[in-house]
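Note to self: user wants both folds in one dump. Writing first protein now.
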Amino acid sequence: MAERINAFEWLMRSSQSDDIQGSNDNNFQIGDPDPETTEFINEQHEESLMTTEEIEEDHTTNQRLIYSLNFFNKINNNQSMCNTCKKVLKKPSSTTTTLVRHLRIQTKKYSEYQTYSFNSKSYLSQNSARAKLITQNINEMIALDYQPYSIVKDRGFKNLTYTLESKYKLPTRQYLASTAIPQLYSKKLSLLKEEINTELNSMQSISFTFDIWTSGAQQPYISLTTHYLTKQFELRNKTLGCSYFLGEHDGKSIFLKIKSMVSEWNIDILSLNIPIYMVTDNARNISCALNKYNSNDNLHHYFCAAHTLQLAIQDALKENNIESLLKKFRPIVTHYNHSNKSWERLQQIQVRLNLPNHKLIQMVETRWNSVFLMLERIIEQKEAIVLDL
C-alpha cells in the first residue's frame, strides 16, 4: 500500500531532499493536511492580514470563551490547568492555541467548544481600519458598476468576501440604501464642487450641454454636463445632474430648471463674466428658453452639429422615394433578426455562396449612420437574401 502523508509533510520532504522527485514519485499520495498543522498555518496567515488591535481582540475573545466554558483554570498569564485531567499547560499569554490542541483529546468538550466558538464568532470591529476599507470599496463598487444593493445577499458575493476576509461582516442592503451610498454621494459631491470652484477661477470659458428625454416608463428627465479646459490645457467633462422634470416643458420652465441645476454648483449663468456656451439640439422650446429668457450677453447658444446633420439627412431621405425603399428593407431585416429558423437558413446559404457570416443590421431613425450600415449590409448579402426569399 502506498504511504500516505499530509500536504505539509510532503512540502517539507520536497524542500529537504531531491530524491523524492524521481523513481519514488509514485510511492506516496498526498492526503488531507493535518488539522493541527492546518490550524497553525491558517492562524499565521490570518494574523498577517490583521492589524495589531484586531489580533489582540480576536485572542481576547477566544480566551474569554475557553475559560468561561470552565475547561481550564488559569494559574497565571503563562500557565493554565486542564479541569479534566489536571495537566498544567504552558502557553504564551496572548494565545489559546496550546489549550485548543489539548482540548482535542477530549472529543465531547472539543465539540462543545467548536459549537460555542462558531456561534460567538469574532467579527472585525466596524470602526477598524480594515473593515472601513472593505465597506468603502463595496460602496464604490456598487456606485461605479451600477450594482443593486441586494448584491450583499448574493451567495457568490458572500463567498467571495468570506474568502478574502472571513472576519468581515457584510453591511445590510438597508444600511447601504439609507446611509452608506448617500454618504458616499455627499462626499464625492463636495469634492467635485470644490474641484470645479477652484478651476472656475482660472477658466477662460465654460460650456454646458443638456437634453430632455423620456424614459421607457414615460417619465421625463433632464440631464446636464459641463466641459472646460484647465490651465494645463486638460479637457474636463463632468456630469452635473440628471433630474426628474415634471410639468410643462416650455421655454420659461426649461430656462429656470437649467439655471437651478447650474446654481447647485455655485455657478450663476446670469452673472458669470466669462463666455458661456450652451450646446443643445434643435428643439424649439429649448431655443426659446436660451434666447428669450436669457439676460446675460456672455451666454451663447449653439445647436449640436451632429443633430443638425441628422435633421438634414432625414429630410434628404424623404426625397427620391428613398423612404419608400427603406420601408421595404426594414421588414426584411426584422424577419431575419427575429426568426431563428430564417436566420439559420440564411447562414447556410452564406456558406454555400462563400459570403461573410454577417447578420443584417436594422436602422434606427435617430442615427443616420445606421441607415447607411443597413443598406451596405443588404447589398453585401443580396444574393443570399434573394435566394432564400
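First done. Writing the second protein, which came from a different request thread.
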Amino acid sequence: MALMGDQLNVAQRQPAYVRFQNNTCYSIEVNWMNFHNKEQTYCILDPNKFVDVNTFSTHSWIFRECTSKSHMVVAGREVFIATPWVEEHRRLEFKHPINVPLRTRVLIEMPAMDLRKLCLLKLASILKNKDDINMLEIPKTLQKELIEMISNKEASKIQLTN
C-alpha cells in the first residue's frame, strides 16, 4: 500500500540533533518553517553563541539577521534541512556502537552583502532610537530603511519576551 501526503512525511521524519552556531557579529533569528510554511522564531542567537536543537529531518530552518531581516547562510544555502543523526553517524564512519545520538554542528554565516547594506547595519547597531536617524544628513530613503531596521531590532527583542 502506497503512503499518501502526511503519512509519507511521518514515515520519512527521523530525529536530527543539531547545534546551531552563530559565526557572525550580529544577532540572528533562528526560524523554524512551521507546518503552514511560515517562519516561526525559535530563538535569537547572539554573536558567537550556539543553541542545541532537537529537530527532524523533514523540518526546514531559516536564519535572519535581526535588524535588517537579511538571510544568513549555512553551507552557502539560505534554507537548512538537518540530516538524521543515524546517517551522520554512518557518514562519519564511527567504529563504536550507537549509544548516544550524534549532534551535528551547523555554522551560521553571513553571505556576501553590498557595502550599502553593511553600512546601514552598522548605523542601526550604533543608533539608540529612531529619533537619532532624523539628525543624520542622509537621503530620506536611507532614513526609512534605518527606521525599519531599528523597528525590526526592537520587535525581535519584544518577540523573545512573549
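Dump finished. Worth passing along: The beta strands are 15-22, 28-33, 39-45, 50-56, 60-65, 79-81, 103-108.
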